[in-house]
Amino acid sequence: MTRTIRTLFFSPTHSSRKIALAIADTLAAALGAKKEVQDVTLPEGRVPSKPCGPDDALVLAFPVYGGRVPQVLEALLADLEGQGAYAVVVAVYGNRHYDDALLEARDLLTRCGFKVIAAAAFIAEHSLTPKVGTGRPDDADMQRVADFARAAAEKIAGGNPAPVTVKGQRPYKERGPAAPVSPKTGEGCTECMICVASCPMGVISAHNPRLVSRGCICCFACVKSCPEGSKYFDDERIAQIRAMLESKCGARKEPELFL
Q1: Model's pTM, two decimal places?
Q2: What are the φ and ψ backbone dihedral angles of 168, each rounded to 5 degrees?
Q3: CATH class of 184-232
């Protein structure tokens, strides 16, 4: 039976995608496996996944939001069928902390029948400010990604590896209340609709990109993708969080690997 590396990622600003695919490529090459990729960033990608077989391995990668797994993924992950498959879990965070996100993801996959044998927390440029985690994941980070993937492949190849222990606490960090904020649009907007196509919640109007309905998760995908720099947030709470990050989270943090 051919082993399959199934890769599932949520990646509004593309860092989780980059790391997930790098890990999957290394696992597939090391284990002689085929690859399947499911990008669940956009609503149309959030469809039920095929059940995994006991010889398969799942790579799950996501950005940390408020120290947790993104809430939009909860139902999707709860419906996965592991059937004894291995899993490698990656939380990507903006140089503050990943809090309980890895533990939460490991618990979710374990309940679905996966054996989580490796986990890691990698750093990316913070979505709210390029002054925190600037340019990450950088070359050094991607070398750690490669090393981590090779170590995970060795565990899988060795047969029946033990589940991994990760940092985090239960009950998980309480989610903050949903903030009724949404991006604004400057006069430079050309209505190219790139922001519409990049919005993981589908809340930017396809007819008028200046109109945003409720449900924005402040992932900043629209801000990062706008070629004219015309999408922005002017909410005072976001400004306060940005100021806190820039004043307290500038020191470089390194990836944490659990094998």
Answers
A1: 0.95
A2: 140, 170
A3: alpha beta
